[in-house]
Amino acid sequence: MIITNPILKGFNPDPAICRRGDDYYIAVSSFEWFPGIPIWHSTDLGNWTLKTHVITTSAQADLTKLRSAKGIWAPCLTWCEADGLFYVLYGVMNSMNGRYFDVDNYLITAENIEGPWSEPVYLHSAGYDASILHDDDGRKWVVAVDWETRDGYSGAISVVEYDAASGKTVGFPQRIWSGDGEIGAEGAHLTKRNGWYYIMTAEGGTGYGHCVTMGRSRHVLGPYEKDPQNPILTSASADRLHTPLVIDKTSAAAFDKDYLRAGCFNPDAGLQKAGHASYVECDDGRVYMVHLCGRPLRPELCCPLGRETAIQEAYWTGDGWLRLAGGGNIARDWIDIPGVAGPQPAEIVDRAIRFDDGPLDIHLYAPRIAAETFANTAVKPGWVTLRGQESLCSENRVSLLARKLTALDATVTTRMDFSPAVFQHSAGLILYYDNMNWLLLQKTFDERAGSAELSVVHLDNGLKREDRHLCAHPADGELYLRLEIDGRQMGFSWSTDDVHYQPVGQRYDAALFSDEYSQYGEFTGSFVGIACVDAVYHRQPASFEFIRYRANEAKRIE
User: In whole angstroms, what is the distance from residue 174 CA to residue 154 CA?
Assistant: First the structure.
């Protein structure tokens, strides 16, 4: 069956794939979002469903007060047949101030992919993107970026042995791989095949010059020889891959992040930013590589959906190197996967998240804290009640419940019951990239009118703008709120009957909510959902009956 990329749409970067029998799993980064480390599942590599999350308690990872795009980076998921255990390695990036990259790396295990997971074992803080190799002699090796802070030195990939019996690493990490000459080797995975140790890394920065390189050695500590055809996967054409950084200060996005490398953009490629990969082998010898990618708006080169996950078929050559099926090294928009069961994954997603008793829907996330600390389904049966907390700019405790945006042709609707008493009370429907870039249709209290008001607040790289264009003063009672995203443009409306909608606020550009545009965050993606603020006592409730999400995921927006 023909499978169209990306297979995991919306914010799903840094995929790590593993296999247990006939089951395939992909773990992706979650950064400041909770629950952390989403695990996707498939039995045919074509149809994927969100199965579970690894990080569900603050004891596993304390994300409060972390800045945007910090938190959980690039988890590694493996299955060790000899141990009968799943292993997850993850790093909590606490700070990048001064480019020091303060990260703590942990290891946890479980017999079942849905847990329960063991208590975290601290590994080291030498660098990020840690992963593990279960060697065939029973030893275990942890690889990670060995971050460099000194002038005149470059970082590399290091390896250190992990002693499972003591739960500790042995000695100091040793550098084994400096990459193939592109910018900064990272996202390393170490595997073993036919007596060779293979290292697969991401290079070029997680932007338009991103790529995948490989090396191999007969010894885990090296030396590693470079694949003569590196990079084995990229979106950039050969003549653009080595293009230096170009900073365009006239652009709305203002490309001032060195890793973006806009000069490497390949206008002929449908998938951009291809890199940070891992691979899996099937019983019949087929090999599949999963990797992150982006689908930017053009010409701004902004990706509101964030970094997504795509899949490519690969094969081993006779001399033991990995190559893309069909030749070349450019990521493809689609692949043909034999044996995919059922129909092609739906192009139109039409789903209402409802709030009956029991756990919250698996697709819902909150920034930095567990939603259960502020969301309650018992207060008003059939609804979720959010207890208002800090402003939506906060990096601490925010009452925001959202799902990932997966398409730029989407409509999001909710029904809200909220009675603000003072202007510090607000609640409504939100599009949220990070705490410094969001768009909120809010109901709040207007003291001058002596009644509630519906208006829009836009936080634009930390600058708050109040948009009262077509603002309304609805009567008390339940309201329907709607966000319509039509390609590059989006706007809000409201209704009392879910039939007749009235617009509120201006129209907004989708490019404003992206890695490239954000001056404070990066690496994540846009979410849509519901929020409540009580900046006085942190107790004012807002109730929501559903979050209805309809999206055309097949429609390409450029």
Answer: 14
pLDDT of residue 182: 61
Q: Return d(Cα 138, Cα 123) in angstroms, integer.
A: 18
Q: Which of 14, 146, 203, 361 is catalytic?
A: 14
CA angle 166/147/276 to nearest 5° reads: 90
CA dist 6 and 8 (Å) reads 6
Which band of pLDDT confidence, cut at 50, 70 and 90, is reported for residue 243? low
The C-alpha atoms of residue 37 and residue 92 are separated, in whole angstroms, by 11
- Report which residue type is found at 249: K
Structure tokens at 16: 């790590």
Q: What are residue 519's phi and psi, to 5 degrees?
A: -90, -10
Residues linked to residue 335 through DSSP beta bridges, in sequence order: 3
113 three-class SS:
coil
Q: Nearest CA to 439 among 534, 545, 526, 542?
A: 526
CA distance 479 to 458: 21
Q: Would you place residue 344 in the very low, low, confident or very high pLDDT band (cuts 50, 70, 90)?
A: low
Catalytic residue among 146, 180, 186, 361: 186
CB 322 within 8 A of CB 196: no
- The predicted model gives 436-464 an average pLDDT of 97
Q: Is 408 helix (H, G, I), strand (E, B) or coil?
A: coil
Beta strands in 390-519 (DSSP E): 399-404, 409-418, 425-434, 437-446, 451-460, 463-472, 479-486, 489-495, 502-509
Residue 411 has pLDDT above 70, yes or no: yes
Residue 180 is a catalytic residue: no
- pLDDT of 345 > 70? The answer is no
Kindly calculate the radius of gyration of the chain based on its CA atoms and give it in whole angstroms.
23
Alpha carbon distance 424, 229 (integer Å): 59
> Residue written as tokens 């993850």?
90
Average pLDDT rounded to a whole number, residues 429-451: 96
Check residue 63 and give its pLDDT. Answer: 97
Say which residues have a Cβ less than 8 Å from residue 530's Cβ, sequence separation at least 6. 384, 386, 400, 401, 402, 414, 416, 427, 428, 429, 430, 542, 544, 547
Q: Is the pLDDT of residue 245 over 50?
A: no
253 pLDDT exceeds 60? no
- pLDDT digit string, tens, across residues 297-332: 999 999 999 999 999 999 999 999 999 999 999 999
Tokens 């003063």, located at residue: 473
Q: Are 31 and 359 in contact (CB under 8 A)?
A: no
CA distance 385 to 21: 42
What is the phi-psi region of residue 484: left when phi exceeds 0, alpha when psi lies from -120 to 50, beta otherwise?
beta
Instruction: Please report, for residues 74, 216, 274, 471, the alpha-carbon distance to residue 112 in angstroms, rounded to integers and kept in the order given.
Output: 21, 32, 31, 51
Q: Residue 440 contacts by C-beta under 8 Å, 6 or more apart in sequence?
A: 392, 426, 428, 429, 430, 456, 457, 458, 459, 531
186 is catalytic: yes
CA angle at 410 for the pair 502 and 434, rounded to the nearest 5°: 95
